[in-house]
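Explain this protein:
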Amino acid sequence: MKKETLDRVSSYVEKYASDSISLAETFCDRHPENNLAFRIIEQDQSYNDISFKELRKESEKLASGLMEDGVMPGDRIAMLMGKSKEFIVSLVAIWRVGGVYVPLFTAFATPAIELRLKESNTKYIICDDIQLPKLEPVAREAKTNLNVIVVTAPKKEIPIWCSAWNSYLSNKKQEKYAMLNLQSPFIHIFTSGTTGHPKGVVLPVKALATLHAYAEFGLDLRSDDIFWNAADPGWAYGLFCGIIVSLATGIPSILLKGSFNPDLTVSILENHRVTNFTAAPTVYRAIKSSTNILSKEFSIRCMSSAGEPLTPDVNQWALKFFGIPVHDHYGQTEASMIINNSHNFNLRRKLRLGSMGIAMPGWDIVVLKFNEDIACEVGEVGRIAVDIRSSPFAWFKGYIGNKEKSAEKFSKNGEFYLTGDTGKTDKDGYFYFISRDDDVIIMAGYRIGPFEVEAALSTNPAVNECAVIAAPDNVRGEVIEAFVVLKPNYVASDELTKSLQEWVKAKFAAHAYPRAIHYVNNLPKNPSGKIQRYILRDGRKGND
């Protein structure tokens, strides 16, 4: 690695290694006040621009109100909000006071929300008024000490158990805001549950070094870029590499309100002259599959993909449609982006079919043998891992309150972080993804743990037991399929299938319901009683 690159790695590490770091200064106040921070685009393509001046002014007001209400550094503050001006202002205000942000995906149903609020010991939640029905059962529970702050239209009545977002906008000038150090937490996010509850991951300020570096090394973000990460900020990639990357660099970013639409996406890329675009492969596949999209003129300089493996057909199409290839990137909630096909001129290499790229500077990535913690030979399939000893960007130390699962993520000697994925390398250091070592389903870039879907499904009166697996899908990459053993007196039918699908939407999340349900007499299990999902997956493949 060139000395110039090593020096850049060191500079990022040093930048976030201080004992006195203001995230308000880092994310907002240091940027030129008249520069664009975010552009919020509506479904009709009307938009609202937020400058850093406005962001500072409004976030200071909200931060003052939160501090007057007793919010302290380290307090967990969740948000259940769509992409909006209030969302961005609230985020910066949380970090201005030293709060720890707990992201919640807006498609979550009440049980999924409640679990994350309790696990994180969240004291405040900021939400859109459309989300209030989900929160009422949580807020009314006697054991829950939760302050609900709701964003609503002016003069619109709100329930007595809520406070209005506008009422927190205090004009009282604070002398100073929170100062943090490299180990101070600022995000508390949850991974997908596989065989148990979702696991809590707390990002310290130190993690900003690799997030900021990814903007340079992976995305090649430049000061004159218009950036758009199409991933939802309720999840790791959308939050880390969309919102935080833009705030850390001061490079303007687009946020699209409402649901995804391939035609609308293409139109925004063209009309708003987006130069740097990132999305899950499902976005590219959806655009590719749309019959309504004609050839356009784009300003795009860089296109990236993350969340699931990028298939070769996408790049073959992208070269024709956009004129440039899509660069595949690989990362995890516990590390952020660690392997990529870099856009950076000094790091760029020729793309290789099926490869997710090379290790990003600041990360030493290896493929370990399955039965011992030594490196595989070139071309040998093994466990993708991070050599912590030689990875200055590494920050993850374990899951909050889950020693058992934490131990599973590290080698016995503690020298390697184990991603849980399998892969291989070629002689030139390119990495190739083979498979996941767990049962996580990746649908449209969202990581969905089968446990939460099964937990919701199993509460239905008709279900005796169940298991869910990933099934291939041409657009979404993977979708959920369920195998259900019915209780006596219940009979499989199309009506029951629809009822179970709606049940999962209501009990867990609107997006994470089984697209198909197979009714079976029993589920394959090992001697200890654990469901063997791989047998269900293999059986399904045999029937394709």
The CA atoms of residues 268 and 534 lie 41 Å apart. The longest helix spans residues 52-68. The radius of gyration is 23 Å. The chain has a mean pLDDT of 91.
